[in-house]
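new request in #modeling-help
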Amino acid sequence: MKYIDEYRDKKLISALTGQIRKSALGDYTFMEVCGGHTAAIHRFGIHSLLPENIKLISGPGCPVCVSGTDFIDKAIAYSQMDYVIITSFGDLLRIPGSSASLEKMKAAGADVRIVLSALEALDIAQDNPSKKVVFPAIGFETTAPGTAVTVIQASKSKTENFFLLCGHKVMPPAMEAIIKEGVRLDGFICPGHVAAITGSAIFDFIPEKYNLGCVVTGFEPADLLQSILMLIRQVNSRTPAVEIQYNRVVTEGGNKLAQKSLYEVFEPCDMQWRGLGLIPLSGLALKKEFRMFDIEKSIPLNIEVLQENEQCICGEILRGIKRPPDCQLFANLCLPENPVGACMVSPEGSCNTYYKYRLANE
Amino acid sequence: MCLSIPVKIVSIEGTMAEVSAGGTLFRAGLHMIEDAKIGDYVLLHAGFAIQKISEKEAEETIRLFDELNESV
């Protein structure tokens, strides 16, 4: 397929790997922030192509994994109301809340439907005027503009039974939280699809304030290897900067139309992250004029959130402090078919991808 | 979740398009794309085209890769 095959060329990959081996003079640790990158790195066996002195660690960029237990518990509570239809991205269904998941609720008879797009959720609302249709809105800057466009459509069409359970997050504050946590890093493999919307400039504060390099990266093996090479060169020359490797999609300013919808509908708010806690201004809330689409305003909840499994170290994995095999539940009690922690659920979660692609080789 | 795939626009009706990923057809909202045309490649994410793919930049990246290939 165009824009895919040419970035998977064997000769090219081997040339890039050769350049990396030649350039890597010391020890390097880079964090891939995006869950899509974590999945691609494992799927294409990038770890096995790199010399031992280059370490890649996964960050907090799997939106499913970082959705707090309270968010899942709220979605579950709404699913128990007989006048509510939950319309959700499939990934979210298996994430464990305090005591159950949306998937278990669906199996028990709740009206929980999988959608591929927020627009589908709006269609379901228009087809079911006697029900309240709730779309648990998760995802970063890549996904939030689609939700924003849908809210604008709902407003224009005066669809009064479509609601969001707001859980959208933004990436830069979480990256800053990771840096402040003191995780030893030499640079970031930055999320290409977030930057397609926001532009690469949102990462400028990282080299400026923290002296760390950032390369905005695509999702094919040649993209990833080229970015690693660019980061190594930044470290070697001590010139941390924001560079764009994924320039077929990303510009410095991003997609202005998408940004316009995003900021017409949403405004920054404090947000709870699984593993990272409450991060100021890291979430997106509906602006006043669209707040009638907020299910928590329409049907306020008062739920008690129970503790997560104490042995689960998803939080430390999401902060880049520990790796999946460091967890005593990993591949033991916590398995893809019966996940204990969120990182084992999502196909972009560190534990899930590690289990799928690397466990057999160790 | 941030998975986006390169797709080709096959037909356009208002703000919606039919797009092809290697022959598999999907629907995509074009609300965020300026001057979308049939034949354009865009990135599809969660039911929306989120960005046009720049053919010029893609060719430039490939050219740089080729140079690297020759130098090894």
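bot summary: The radius of gyration of chain B is 14 Å.
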